[in-house]
Amino acid sequence: MKTVYERPKCLKDRHFHYCPGCGHGVIHKLIAEIIDELGIQDRTVGVAPVGCAVFAYWYYDVDFSQAAHGRAPAVATGIKRAKPDSIVFSYQGDGDLAAIGTAEIIHAANRGENITVIFVNNAIYGMTGGQMAPTTLVGQKASTAPYGRNPENEGYPIKVCELLSTLRGTTYLERTAITTPGSIIQTKKAIKKAFQNQLDGKGFSLVEVLSQCPTNWGMKPTDGTKFIKEQMMPVFPLGVYKDLSDEKGGSK
Q: Per the database entry, which stretches of residues form a coiled coil (predicted)?
């Protein structure tokens, strides 16, 4: 029989532990495919902080470092500066990157660190019990906002791509989703470009991926993609928010 698809070489032969309907498995697979296609497995170093991303090192056959909550960009910066030939990426959720790690992501981006950031936005704290995150939608219920997010008390959802696009140091920012086959293909293209930018020495790249968390959203997995399309996308529109890849030359 003709082989149609094989597990990426840098993805270990293990079952994912994520909840049914969770998007992390899809995103993991895309990253692994890209590492294989670029031929950078022996040079890649991942950084995973606290949250559902914390066990990423169980699944990738590449070097990995665990970071304290929110500190992945700082750790990635240190690794990249110490070993500039390495391809360094952080894998972070919204509670991690947009809350506890706000300072780290803003300053790494503003410095134009030559790293790649994969930012998974599911509008909730996942691992720790469904608390309200900086990206939780107005009116969306969470364990710490049982009546729904109220802007008068908790403010509005933080839009990371829009925020980072104002910083001079950023090179490439795109928001994608994994709701349809087409959006998954676009997400892979975006992530691959972010890695290629690092290979070319063009500076800081971040790809934000709108992803499902049916368990903490309190819905069936089949309703997760519908929630992203109908509720999240109007607040977090998909698209390229900044792309200076063609303007920035590579480092020597």
A: none
